[in-house]
Design a protein that fits this description.
single chain, four-stranded parallel beta sheet, 13 strands
């Protein structure tokens, strides 16, 4: 583990009162991208309310299984064998996150990996909100060629030293987040904060997916139980979504194809907003969400036949921020 404290120049005097009082800029390296993959290293840069660095922390983590794509992160089984287990660093990690907004590049991924590790340790991470720097870059309309971390860093003149090393990635993101935060404050931009919901359902299993080892050091892998059946939507269906207007509680929303945000998380957010999450598409469906409207899936074909409006995931995410209440 590594820790250091730094002091930086003062920030602008004017600041939106509604902005968070502190941030934890996080990066985790993992054995892969699936639900049963594990964290192998983690770094946290703690920032004050105006984005100034307070301290940073880094640790390796024994994933209790094979380390995955070593050619990307460079962490071999030999390196990780003597590292602490996640449950051994969970308390210190939590202290770094406590009372702060988690900031990450593609934050939903980092949050889900962290939440699953805490669920395995039968604990909850003390995080209630997260902020994705990709979403913030879009809010600020930054002229980026793409939304990779290296592009965001280059825009602000931040030099990357060791890509895919958690500590350096977190440093780069902290340095790029500070001017982003200041630009948002100067323009009174509403920060794209999202709720962090802890995961609590999990189960160990010995079986491995094809192409993977059964476990690292003989430990079982972890998988996640299917989502529980959601209660019925309490609002009547107001009909189809109309372009340019907000979604309304009770609208029936269906999803098709891969999403950058986990499908279950998108569905949970839709249900929490008062929408009816439909598993199939019918003439009563108000909206279809898909990132590939030309895919030819059965839902896309039916949406075309029924005249059901289609939007992509990004547009749906924007619409979720302002769902109109149901009539009456």
């Amino acid at each position: 583990m590594l820790e250091d404290r730094t002091t930086e120049a003062s920030s602008p005097t004017l600041w939106p009162a509604a902005y968070p009082r502190g941030y934890a800029v996080v990066d985790v390296e993992t054995t892969g991208l699936a639900r049963d993959d594990r964290i192998i290293s983690a770094a946290v840069y703690r920032l004050d309310a105006r984005g100034e660095v307070e301290d940073h922390w880094y640790t390796l983590v024994n994933p209790e299984r094979d380390p995955g794509p070593v050619w990307i992160h460079g962490l071999t089984s030999d390196v990780l064998e003597g590292a602490p287990l996640f449950r051994d660093v969970a308390e210190e990690f939590a202290a770094r996150l406590d009372g702060r907004v988690l900031v990450a590049h593609n934050a939903v991924f980092d949050w889900q990996m962290i939440a699953r590790e805490y669920a395995r340790a039968q604990r909850e991470a003390p995080v209630r909100q997260r902020l994705c720097t990709i979403a913030l870059a879009k809010e600020l309309a930054l002229p980026l060629p793409n939304h990779k971390l290296e592009s965001l860093a280059a825009h602000f003149g931040v030099v990357q030293r060791r890509a895919h090393h958690a500590l350096d990635d977190a440093r780069v993101l902290a340095e790029a987040f500070r001017p982003s935060l200041r630009a948002a404050a100067a323009g009174s931009v509403r920060l794209p904060l999202q709720e962090c919901r802890p995961l609590t359902e999990w189960a160990d299993r010995p079986a491995a997916r094809i192409g993977r080892q059964a476990g690292y050091g003989g430990y079982p892998q972890t998988s996640w139980r299917p989502s529980r059946k959601r209660p019925a939507c309490p609002y009547p269906n107001p009909g189809r979504y109309e372009d340019g207007k907000p979604l309304k509680q009770g609208m029936r929303v269906a999803f098709s194809g891969d999403t950058s945000t986990e499908r279950e998380l998108l569905e949970d957010r839709a249900a929490e907003a008062g929408l009816h999450v439909a598993t199939s598409l019918s003439r009563l469906t108000s909206l279809l969400v898909t990132n590939d409207p030309d895919s030819g899936t059965s839902k896309v074909v039916k949406a075309r036949q029924y005249g059901t409006p289609i939007v992509d995931e990004a547009a749906f995410g924007q619409l979720l921020r302002d769902v109109a209440p149901a009539d009456g």
